[in-house]
Amino acid sequence: MRKYNPKVKICCILSKKEADIxxxxxxxxxxxxxxxxxxxxxxxxxxxxxxxxYVPAHxxxxxxxSLRDAEAIIRQxxxxxxxxxxxxxxxxxxxxxxxxxxxPQIKFVQVIHVMNQNSIKEALEITxxxxxxxxxxxxxxxxxxxxxxxxxxxNWELSRQICELVSLPVYLAGGLxxxxxxxxxxxxxxxxxDICSGLRTNGKLDPVKIVTFFSNIN
Length: 218
Fold this sequence. Notes:
By secondary structure, this protein is of the alpha/beta class. Strands 1-2-3-4-5-6-7-8 form an eight-stranded parallel beta barrel, surrounded by six helices. Strand 2, helix 2 and strand 3 form a beta-alpha-beta unit.
């Protein structure tokens, strides 16, 4: 089987130093996590703005937001000024439409928390509103929502079906690490990969894990 190299988004970037490490390793996008009900990698909007301004123009910066109100999202994004907004919770169609009018140059990525067959239906229903999907292992139905950063692998069969059915770019997240990434690529065949905890040791980006991760992709 001929290998292909998916795009890599390294998420939960905590500093300019980590941004440099990720970009040097080969990341094409960085994830910057704003306030969340749970999960790792949360930094202040001031830090997100600072990192987004720092990275080279050819690197995409993703603002991960749990906000669901259109005006609040617009205010947050205009301050942070990333190239992309990643919605980690569900958004109503009219909110997407309003945001598209107000932020026409910004790319929208919607997280689908892959739990069951309904996740496929959810993915298909929103493809006309966003620029890409990101398949993760959270659970927005819990009392304290888990909206990403679980370090847990979900059902790749469901993710594979979504990749086959939608015409948008699809990122695969959830429990990826240097040991399983090639299997994930071969089975799911995503456009891109999204990884956070799988490249960290004691909360910090691990140079050895990063090198192994990229070598197992290429």
